Amino acid sequence: MPKPAPSPPAARLRRRIAAAGPIPFAEFMEEALYGDGGYYAREELPIGVEGDYVTGSSHSPLFGRATARWLAALDRALGRRADFFEAGFGNGTHLAALVAALAAGGGLAGRRLLAWDRVPRPVPAGVERVEGPAALAARPVRGLVFSFELFDALPVHRLVGRQGGRASCGWGSTERGASSGGRRSSPTRRWPRSPARRSRRVRSQTSRPPGGRSTDRSPRCSSAGCW
């Protein structure tokens, strides 16, 4: 039986690595998940009972109903309709269940409902899709900021602990069984489209994992926080 053709992201990654050598794990993950044809960039997300995996919010509408009750409690505490913002709403299953529960309980009218996702997907009626969290600066959320398994789907640097307290960066490779490795980058080596000091910065600003252990770090995090 002939081998299936690689997916578009896999084909692009193979060409890129073959031409330029190993790339940072975060860039490998970015292409695989959000590149053209990537896992989360597809029109139909394979999430739910009939998909690749099930999350709490996609298993039943109970999660959305529980969130609606939480908002009702915030309404009482604030003395007003609490705002709601969901970061990384995916296929909108939780949003749809929340809107339905709010409508059924009389808690929808006059409420500010916002949502954002890296992939611009449709949102249920009554929900405003924002371009990104930065768009909320002019009118901050007064209520609930919600997310479910968001960081599982964001590209990260993978740091691997070595003997003697060293930490090395993970690299993407086309070698069999080596989608991420523990190769240490040279202080003078440049990553594609990024200077090597990013590697040193990640190492210096992250607590080093013990030997044999690994930890993930957002490319947008520093000692001052994440942005």
Features:
227 residues; 6 helices; three-stranded antiparallel β-sheet
Describe this structure as you would to a colleague.
It is a single chain. With 227 residues, the chain is α/β, with parallel strands linked by helices. Helix content is 28%, strand content 15%. It has six helices and eleven strands. It has helices at 8-20, 25-34, 56-59, 62-78, 93-104, 197-204; strands spanning 23-24, 83-87, 113-116, 128-129, 143-146, 157-161, 167-169, 171-172, 214-217, 221-222, 225-226. The strands form four sheets. The chain has a four-stranded parallel beta sheet, with helices on one face. Strands 7-6-9 form a three-stranded antiparallel beta sheet, with helices on one face. Strand 2, helix 5 (93-104) and strand 3 form a beta-alpha-beta unit. Helix 1 (8-20) packs antiparallel against helix 2. The longest helix is centred in the N-terminal third of the chain and has 17 residues, at 62-78. It is elongated. The model is unreliable at 173-196 and 222-227 (pLDDT under 50).
